[in-house]
Amino acid sequence: MSANVSVAMAAPASRDPAWTGRVFWMFAALVLLAPALALTEFKPWILFSAQSLQSTRNFVADFFPPKIEAEFLLLVGRECWRTVAIATAGMALALLIAIPLTLLSTSVLSISALPGRMHALPFLLRQATRWLLILLRSIPELVWALVFVRVVGLGPTAGVLAIALTYGGMLGKVYGEILESDERQATHALLRNGAGRLQSFFYALLPQSASELTSYTVYRWECAIRSSAVLGFVGAGGLGQQMDNSMKMFQGSEVATMLIVFMMLVGVADYASAWLRRKIA
């Protein structure tokens, strides 16, 4: 009798006990998605109409064969290098923005918060810093590039400044979250024994977070390379600006070459960032 009971208890359930919840949330998602599709006038079947297919064939035909003249390839290589330079310079400025703002917005380095509740003035300062980070990252780099193109003119400077501001806000937010989530005992012990904020940061907080901080920074550099190409379409220099010029002149073969080169560039950047993350892990 006991053996039969144990076999019955060990038998798997004939039906997933969570299927009702999954079905409910699936239908809820469909109900929420349907108005969004209607609002955006999402009509994918238009892509398969005769007129759309003919336009697609004509557009794709202009891309072949890609242009591989030596002079043009030299131009593409120079603009490709400029794209990497824009991303790297923008990330360097973003770090100069993000690191001080991160230290100001991180409560783990607050001496006034050691006894318990943080004092009013440091609390207001940290909240203001966090709102500044929200402002910086809430405005896309494309919008910043449009602003700086009007201010400083066409060229890489606008792209560098756009990446610096948006990525400065992104880095500051994520850096702060990483530091806040780490173990605080060593940091607080140094602060209670008279160490300064910077000393506590470099000797207690940074060593346990360095790997994660560096990994995220490298990932953002990879994203900045993609962004710098897009910013070129609004006149911020780099490969994107040259691609935009070729598209306006209906030079599909030149665009094809630049797309191939850009995909190779993104692949190299992805490999380089993965290699760096493995080295620092």
Notes on the protein architecture:
By secondary structure, the protein is mainly α. The protein has a single domain (70-280), classed as MetI-like fold (Orthogonal Bundle), CATH 1.10.3720.10. Helix content is 77%, strand content 0%. α4 (70-105) runs antiparallel to α5 and α5 (120-138) crosses α7. The model has no long low-confidence stretch (mean pLDDT 79).
Count of domains: 1
Report the helical percentage: over 70%
The name of the CATH architecture is Orthogonal Bundle
| CATH topology-level name | MetI-like fold
Strand segment tally: 0
Give me the secondary-structure category.
Answer: mainly alpha
Largest sheet: none
Oligomer: single chain
**Quick one: CATH superfamily?**
MetI-like
Question: Roughly how many Å is the radius of gyration?
Answer: 27 Å
CATH class descriptor name: Mainly Alpha
Strand content: under 5%
User: Which of globular, elongated, flat, extended, rod-shaped describes the shape?
Assistant: globular
Mean of all residue-level pLDDT scores: 79
- What order do the SSEs take from the amino end to the carboxyl end, as H and E? HHHHHHHHHHH
Short description:
This protein is mainly α and 281 residues long. 77% of the residues lie in helices and 0% in strands.
Brief descriptors of the model:
single chain, 281 residues, mainly alpha, MetI-like fold, 11 helices, 77% helix, globular
